[in-house]
Amino acid sequence: MYLNLRGPSRRARATAGLAVAAAGALGLLGACGHPPHTSSAVVGALAPGPGEHPLAGMPGGTGPAPADPAHGASPMPSMSMPNMSMPKDAPAAPKAPVAGTAVAIKNFAFAPAALKVKAGTTVTWTNQDTDAHTVTSSGSGGPLRSAALNTRATYRYTFTKPGTYAYLCTIHPFMTATVEVTP
Fold it and tell me: What is the pLDDT of residue 99?
């Protein structure tokens, strides 16, 4: 049997202190850690209770104030989110369709966003993102219906009839593009 003769760790005390400070700052707790008192001496004041230590950054606290993200300093400068992809600013769609036979899916966008091909052309979409995407006709009854494309997966479709084919990614519906097919 293990008997812990030490008190709470510094990290546990700091975490508990931050939780109390946040609740106090929101007016959820009085200075003693209980619901706010109606005494005029306590209303609006935030101070540590008996046996508590002032927190850095709090009125009467010691040490440096916490970083203020509104003024450029990050409160968690070393925090990262591994395996998390965030969409980057999507490139602006060109004013005129681009000729070609390939569409790259990258940075949560189809590139080019407007493609122009002749009837009988096979277009290939390649997913270059780490997230899965689809190539699906907008509206009902369109010809484009890919499965979810994982990284480096491709989807091919041969356009046989002239017209403008709008499509999107059903997983990320903000991703849209068109293929213009000419005779």
Answer: 83
Residue-by-residue DSSP string for 159-182: --S-EEEEEE-SSSTT-EEEEEEE
| CA distance linking residue 66 with residue 74, whole number of Å | 9
Lookup: tokens for 87: 């969409």
Cα separation, 163 vs 95, whole angstroms:
18
Angstrom CA distances, 141 to 117, 159, 165, 170, stand at: 21, 15, 11, 15
| 136, 168 Cβ separation under 8 angstroms | yes
Tokens of residue 79, six digits: 């925090």
Q: pTM of the prediction?
A: 0.50
Write the DSSP symbol of residue 70: G
